[in-house]
Every structure is written in structure tokens, then in C-alpha cells.
Amino acid sequence: YGAVGDGYVEVHHRLPVSMMESAYRLDVVKDLIPVCANCHRMMHRQWPPLTPEDLGELILEMNSKNRESESD
After folding, report:
1. Beta carbons of 55 and 43 less than 8 angstroms apart
2. Do residues 31 and 14 touch, judged by C-beta distance below 8 A?
């Protein structure tokens, strides 16, 4: 994206905002994680959202399956 995308990142809440109660106190280090827009959309394609770790495992699994099918 060049200069248009320079410095751009989305932030994912580990606890969905809709589940936060009024007494909830956000810890920006523990509760927020920077992700690219595509990964953020994929995490929210189901409920509850995938964790970043689960999405990473899914990507690794799909890459492994793709490599296996290419070698057939």
C-alpha cells in the first residue's frame, strides 16, 4: 500500500467490547493486540471471535495442507 498504509494497524480486543461490563478496566498491554485488517476480519467471522493464536494455528494448518496437495 506504500505511503497510504504506512503506520496503519487495527487493534483487536481480546475480550469483545460487547462483553465488557461497566466496571471493566482496560489494560492496553494485556487486552489489546495489533493485527492487520485481514486478520482482524477473519477473527470476527465467528462468535466468539477467534483468538489471534487460534487464527495463527489455522493459517499454519492451511499452509501445511496446501503444501501437501502441491506435492501430490
Report:
1. yes
2. yes
Q: Residue 1: what pLDDT?
A: 81
CA 70 to chain CA mean position, Å: 27
For residue 72, the one-letter residue type is D
| Beta carbons of 12 and 35 less than 8 angstroms apart | yes
Q: Is the peptide bond before 48 cis (omega within 30 degrees of 0)?
A: yes
Instruction: Give the Cα separation of 61 and 52 in Å (integer).
Output: 14
For the segment 16-58, what is each residue's pLDDT rounded down to a tens digit?
Answer: 999 999 999 999 999 999 999 999 999 999 999 999 999 999 9
Does residue 71 carry a pLDDT above 90? no
β-sheet bridge partners, residue 17: none
Which are the contacts of 55, defined by CB distance < 8 A and separation ≥ 6?
Answer: 39, 42, 43
